[in-house]
Amino acid sequence: MAFVTALRRLAHVRLREYSWRTAAVTSGAWLTSQRSFTSSSPSLRSDNKVTINFVNRDGEKITVKGSPGDSLLDIVINEDLDFDGFGACEGTLACSTCHLIFDEDTYKSLGPVTDEEMDMLDLAYGLTDTSRLGCQICLTKSLEGVVARVPESVADIRQSKDESS
Amino acid sequence: MASLSHFTTACWKNLQGDRMNKQLFFILRALHKSAASEASGISAAGEEAMPDRLITPVADVGEKTRIMTLKEMPGPSTLSNLVEFIWRDGFSRIHEIQMEHRKKFGKIFKSRFGPQLVVSVADRDLVAEVLRAEGVAPQRANMESWKEYRDMIGSSTGLISAEGEDWLKMRSVLRQLIMRPRDVAVFSDDVNKVVDDLIKRVCILRTQEPDGATVHNVNDLFFKYAMEGVAAILYESRLGCLENEIPQETQDYITALHLMFSSFKTTMYAGAIPKWLRPVIPKPWEEFCLSWDGLFKFSRLHVDKRLAEIEAQLERGEDVKGGLLTHLLINKEMTMEEIYANLTEMLLAGVDTTSFTLSWASYLLARHPRVQQQIFMEVKRTLGPGAVATADDVPRLPLIRGLVKETLRLFPVLPGNGRITQDDLVVGGYFIPKGTQLALCHYSTSFEEENFADASDFRPDRWIRKDSTDRVDNFGSIPFGYGIRSCIGKRVAELEMHLALTRLIQKFQICMCPRTADVKAKTHGLLCPAAPIHLQFIDREI
Ligand code: FES
């Protein structure tokens, strides 16, 4: 499941040697439970993958495919895209580092924003009117070809600020 | 909460695992040279010259904008700090001192407590900068005494007391269970059962008063509500806190918790007093251990009980169903010791924090009847008569959300949070070496006019958005912290508060009791009411 992979990736990419004993257990863990705590919507097993274009901080376009139901954060992790610091809280709505910017039409088609996402967006760096949190957006067929721009990171800012000051 | 001393206390309450009031901590720590030096390794040298590996961009910077050293940073003198804290009981006024120092020294200033240096960051944008620059495992404060106790009893650390990889591992497991709003929403029914009992309790308590309306010291009531609520989620069982007769084991736990809280000042020193002095001054460490014994015992009892039930079900070939604890026990992502320790720390962190906030919220409602009426109208309109709200209704109750946010802005349970820098940083034009203890001054940023117009006014509607692109700024009030080490109990606490406040407002008009005057806040690890709050709960006509 996407989330497990995500965790593994995180472990791998972000934590390096850190041994991630727990990752494998995460998904499906709740299957025995009464309540469903499943961490990401089940990816539909399908061939009908959706194409997404990320624009990284250097302005380069990276085209990848994802399955409907995956979140944009899942895709960044599954595809091992190297956006420094992206998705720090693993999609638990605690950080806003999965901030992505869309064009206006796409933004409108992304569906409603929850209060909790808005609260976290308030804390995102370089916020725009068409910003969303990548961990809250699930892929659907209708998002085929979508362009998501990764905003400048804080580290970039700090450096340029220091230089210009 | 932890180690550092018991400043810990502060921490404990915060499951937040993550946030704490370090300030105190520091302070205490600082009082003891030896403790301090073993503490966070913050060396006095930090204040000396900048190392030459200094951040590169600096090279091109002209004389005027050169990065300054800690030496140049303003702040109160060591002596005046000592006087403030030792003679003038500064510990209980930490939040006010934060404001005074902000006015006097600006957005960033340093304080020295003996050998312990604390850099206070009292500006929204600088706080944002610090938190955004965090790495994978941020550290709040030194938690050695917490860790020492856990080593002594052969237990593990929990989210509050753990650091580095240990912390990250547990955090990764737990955040997948109780941080996402939709995962927490499923607890609505459990929480609502506790709210039922809260309402019944209000009705019983007020009949015991001559006016038939007053509930004496509402914090006592909310303490029991918060404890019952957190336990319902964490332990999947009811403790009976809101019953007339509280079961003995629950009573023992409450006693341990009260001991931790009431002996805050003494126990604070447990961590600050160097080990070799313990034979001479044994009490703080003994009380510290005694309260932890009580807290751990309770959590072992409940965890073991659930484990036995699960084993019995498995033996009978039944399906095992359950919530958080069941998941942890079945999936074994954490060891038993880690489960005990985390449930202990989460329960600890989830009780006083929630109860103080509920006390302040009810107090503010009583003080501002018009605001209360406005919220009541919203609830009535949205839910209709007699309907019980669940998490799914909360998005349609923006004033209830605003009430909680505004209460936490005016009375942030943790008036300041701590961070030990994991890298060299430049903050506010100053070079801050790795390993420096920072105090993020949430209390003072919450009252900045620039961040919140008419900042001392109670206005839950300031949090209401006109539409989804309307930004209600900000880093000025982040009572649960921000980022990877923010409060892990945030969503659970919000759910408990939203559901309780909605129901209280539906049922009762909350009024000031003539015996309650102006209640001020004091810092006792957490920001709490300095005097008991007595309120009247008068039935609304339906
Ligand atoms: S990953 Fe943290 S909010 Fe999306």
UniProtKB/TrEMBL annotation, chain A:
Key words, A-Z: 2Fe-2S, Electron transport, Iron, Iron-sulfur, Metal-binding, Mitochondrion, Transport
Pfam families from the UniProt entry: Fer2
Subcellular location: Mitochondrion matrix
Keyword Transport recorded: yes
Signal sequence, start to end: none
Iron recorded as keyword: yes
Primary site of residence: mitochondrion
GO CC terms of this entry: mitochondrial matrix
GO BP terms in the entry: P450-containing electron transport chain
Source taxon at top rank: Eukaryota
Cofactor: [2Fe-2S] cluster
PROSITE patterns named among the record's database cross-references: 2FE2S_FER_2, ADX
A GO molecular-function annotation: 2 iron, 2 sulfur cluster binding
Stretches assigned to the 2Fe-2S ferredoxin-type domain: 50-154
Family indicated by similarity: Belongs to the adrenodoxin/putidaredoxin family.
The protein's name: 2Fe-2S ferredoxin-type domain-containing protein
UniProtKB/TrEMBL annotation, chain B:
Domain of life: Eukaryota
Residue positions binding heme: C487
Keywords: Heme, Iron, Membrane, Metal-binding, Monooxygenase, Oxidoreductase
Cofactor: heme
Main location: membrane
Gene Ontology MF terms in the entry: heme binding; iron ion binding; monooxygenase activity; oxidoreductase activity, acting on paired donors, with incorporation or reduction of molecular oxygen
PROSITE patterns: CYTOCHROME_P450
Gene Ontology cellular component terms for the protein in this record: mitochondrial inner membrane
Coiled-coil region(s): none
A matching Pfam family: p450
The UniProt record lists the keyword Zinc: no
Gene3D superfamilies: Cytochrome P450
Signal peptide range in chain numbering: none
Sequence similarity: Belongs to the cytochrome P450 family.
Protein name according to UniProt: Cytochrome P450
Source lineage: Eukaryota, Metazoa, Chordata, Craniata, Vertebrata
